[in-house]
Each structure stands twice: as structure tokens, then as C-alpha cells.
């Protein structure tokens, strides 16, 4: 059921960690609750000019947003709903829980599972984050506090990561005598290089947002409590661009990086072709000639 709500102060954990809140935290951001995908996952659509921005809030405070069955089902339901929403142009993934983005696998639930249940759960975590990575629209992980194990693996499946400076990131799985199982062994080295990824995964070491920025793991490190404001700024910027163009740019980069340069350039050509016949391309040229802002409709 769709319900109008205001998530101005509780959309993200940033204002609750004792740091000085920024001006934006006290603005009321009007959103529409699109879906309660589960007890612990809510999907909101921003309103008015921001209506192309969709936001997922993780809300499982008692377990620090650990990825238990209900949370995982809620995330997959949300990603599936967003994948078929033609009005969605950009997704922000946030936490409503103070000082944590996501604590990774639910270790209490795990204790009750036999080996085949563990295998099925890890496979399900991996495929859920692969689905997230494959969404056509850009995705932004908004991180204040801890992003650990599966929590960091979810963020690695997003296109961009924006952290408050109190954030702590790690893949601590080897300390639990397992390995990252939700894509971490593959996505971390692709992002930061083999050598740094190996060190972080072998040791399970927690790194600060500043260190994460310096190794290219995240896009921005903001003052503590301001990751949401920065992410919203970036999301608004993306939301104003030609929606087909942004989707095709994401596809060209993702698919092109998996193949050699010549095949990658073929992918680029194919993706460019998709933009050629859009009304938005003509609107962009008209707006330039008329010295006004373009108004894109996504077709
Ligand atoms: C997140 C901080 C820093 C907060 O640190 P804090 O703010 O000091 O909070 P806390 O440690 O007091 O935790 C508050 C409550 O949340 C619970 N909690 C907390 N985390 C979890 C969890 N993961 N699963 C289940 N419950 C969790 C914790 O047990 C506690 O419950 P209480 O004792 O009050 O009943 C700290 O709690 C922490 O370090 N948690 C553990 C992080 C961790 O090791 N995560 C698992 C990574 S392994 C993984 O993700 C595996 C994967 C996905 O790659 C593959 C696979 O599935 O196997």
C-alpha cells in the first residue's frame, strides 16, 4: 500500500551518532512508501522533482541490520520491484539504524543451520547481490558506521559508495573461519586490485572511510553524519540526466569491462544505438539551442 510519509530525520542513521547534524538532516524530505518489502526493509520514492529517486531503508536495529532470512527476502523483493519500475532512475540504499549500515550475515540464525541450509543461504545472499549489481539503474550505498561482511558485499554490488568518516568497513569472514561468500572475493579485487583485496580479506582488518577512499573502495568520505546529504546530491544529479543514457552508460561500462577492448567498443556502439532514437536525445539538443534546462521523460 502506498502511503505518503516524511523521512526527513529517520531515513538514515547519520544524525544519530553524536556528530553535528548538517542542515539537510532537519529538512523534511517527502517520500511515498512504495512497499514494505518485509518487517525490516522499506522502499520509498522521493517526491516532486526527485520522483526518479527510490530509496531502500534497512530497519533491523536489534540485529544491526544483519542479513537474516526476513531481511534478505525483503531486499530481494525490493530489488525485483525496482527492476520493473519504469519511473525509477536511481536507487539509494540506506540504514535507519544508528552507527551501522549492515552487520553482514546473521550469525545467530547461522548457528541454528545445518550445512545444506548454510549453503542455500549463502547462495541466496550471493544471487541477491548479483541481482542488485545487475539493476539497470545506478545504485548508491549510503554508509554511516559499520559495513561488515555481507554488509560490505552489498555495498560492493552498488555502483557508488558514499561514507561518513566514522564508517568502518571490513570483510571479517576469515576470522569466522569462512570466506566472503556474497561476492566479496570477486568484487573487492576488481575494485581495489588483487594485492590490497588479499590483505583485507586474509586479515579481516577494519578500515576507516578515509582509508577506503584512498584505495578507491568508496567514492566520497563526508564528515560523519553527512553521507546521506552527499548521496542525495549525487542522486539528484543523476536523476536529471537522460534516463536511457544513464542506463546504457552503466551497461556499457559493466559489460565492456568483462571483455577485451575491441568487444567493449562493440558494446559501447550497441548501447549508444539505444539512445539514438529517443525523444530525450532530441530534447537535449533543443534545450541546448534554446539555452534552457532539458526536461527528460525517459523515452
Ligand atoms: C556491527 C557491530 C560493529 C556493532 O557493534 P555494537 O554497536 O557494539 O553492537 P553490539 O555488538 O552490541 O550488537 C548489538 C546486537 O546486535 C547483534 N548483532 C550484531 N551483529 C550481528 C550479526 N552479524 N548477526 C546477528 N546479530 C548481530 C549482537 O549480537 C547484539 O545482540 P544482543 O547481544 O544484544 O542480543 C558488531 O555488532 C559486530 O561486529 N557484529 C558482527 C559483524 C560480523 O562479524 N558479521 C558477520 C560477517 S560474516 C558474513 O557476512 C558472511 C558472508 C555473507 O560473507 C558469507 C556467509 O553468509 O557466510
Q: What attributes characterize this protein structure?
A:
2-enoyl-CoA Hydratase, Chain A, domain 1; 11 helices; single chain; disordered N terminus; four-stranded mixed sheet; Lyase 2-enoyl-coa Hydratase, Chain  A, domain 2; 299 residues; globular; alpha/beta
N- to C-terminal distance: 28 Å
Mean pLDDT across all amino acids: 91
Helix proportion range: 40-55%
* Helix/strand structural class: alpha/beta
Spell out the CATH superfamily of the largest domain. Answer: 2-enoyl-CoA Hydratase, Chain A, domain 1
Family: Belongs to the enoyl-CoA hydratase/isomerase family.
Pfam family, one: ECH_1
EC number: 4.2.1.18
Keywords: Hydrolase, Lyase, Protease
Mind explaining what this structure looks like?
Keywords: Hydrolase, Lyase, Protease. One of its GO terms (cellular component) is mitochondrion. Its EC number is 4.2.1.18. This protein has helices at 69-83, 107-111, 115-134, 150-156, 184-192, 194-203, 209-214, 227-239, 243-257, 261-276, 279-289, and strands at 3-6, 30-38, 41-46, 53-58, 90-95, 100-102, 139-143, 146-148, 160-164, 168-170, 207-208, 220-222. Residues 1-27 have low confidence and may be disordered. The two termini are 28 Å apart. The protein is globular. The protein has 2 domains: 3-239, 2-enoyl-CoA Hydratase, Chain A, domain 1; 243-289, Lyase 2-enoyl-coa Hydratase, Chain  A, domain 2 (Orthogonal Bundle), CATH 1.10.12.10. It has 11 helices and 12 strands. It has an 8-stranded mixed beta sheet, sandwiched between helices. 42% of the residues lie in helices and 18% in strands. With 299 residues, it is of the alpha/beta class. α3 (115-134) packs parallel to α4 and α5 (184-192) packs across α6 (194-203).
Amino acid at each position: 500500500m502506498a502511503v505518503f510519509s516524511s523521512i526527513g530525520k529517520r531515513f538514515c542513521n547519520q544524525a544519530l551518532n553524536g556528530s553535528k547534524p548538517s542542515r539537510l538532516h532537519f529538512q523534511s524530505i517527502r517520500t511515498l512508501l512504495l512497499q514494505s518489502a518485509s518487517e525490516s526493509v522499506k522502499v520509498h520514492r522521493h517526491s516532486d522533482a526527485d520522483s526518479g529517486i527510490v530509496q531502500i531503508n534497512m530497519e533491523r536495529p536489534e540485529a544491526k541490520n544483519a542479513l537474516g532470512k526476513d531481511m534478505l527476502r525483503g531486499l530481494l523483493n525490493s530489488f525485483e520491484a525496482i527492476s520493473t519500475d519504469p519511473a525509477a532512475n536511481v536507487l539509494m540504499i540506506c540504514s535507519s539504524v544508528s552507527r551501522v549500515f549492515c552487520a553482514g550475515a546473521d550469525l545467530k540464525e547461522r548457528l541454528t543451520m545445518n550445512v545444506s541450509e548454510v549453503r542455500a543461504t549463502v547462495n541466496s545472499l550471493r544471487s541477491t547481490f548479483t541481482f542488485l549489481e545487475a539493476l539497470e539503474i545506478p545504485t548508491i550505498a549510503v554508509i554511516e558506521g559499520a559495513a561488515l561482511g555481507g554488509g560490505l558485499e552489498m555495498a560492493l554490488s552498488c555502483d557508488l559508495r558514499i561514507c561518513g568518516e566514522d564508517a568502518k568497513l571490513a570483510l571479517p569472514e576469515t576470522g569466522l573461519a569462512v570466506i566472503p561468500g556474497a561476492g566479496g572475493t570477486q568484487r573487492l579485487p576488481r575494485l581495489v586490485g588483487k594485492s590490497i583485496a588479499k590483505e583485507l580479506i586474509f586479515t579481516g582488518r577494519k578500515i576507516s572511510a578515509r582509508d577506503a577512499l584512498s584505495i578507491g573502495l568508496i567514492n566520497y568520505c563526508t564528515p560523519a553524519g553527512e553521507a546521506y546529504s552527499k548521496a542525495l546530491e549525487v542522486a539528484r544529479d543523476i536523476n536529471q540526466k537522460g534516463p536511457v543514457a544513464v542506463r546504457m552508460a552503466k551497461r556499457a561500462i559493466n559489460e565492456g569491462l568483462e571483455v577485451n577492448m575491441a568487444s567493449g567498443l562493440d558494446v559501447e556502439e550497441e548501447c549508444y544505438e539505444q539512445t539514438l532514437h529517443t525523444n530525450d536525445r532530441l530534447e537535449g539538443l533543443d534545450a541546448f539551442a534554446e539555452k534552457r534546462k532539458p526536461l527528460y521523460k525517459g523515452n
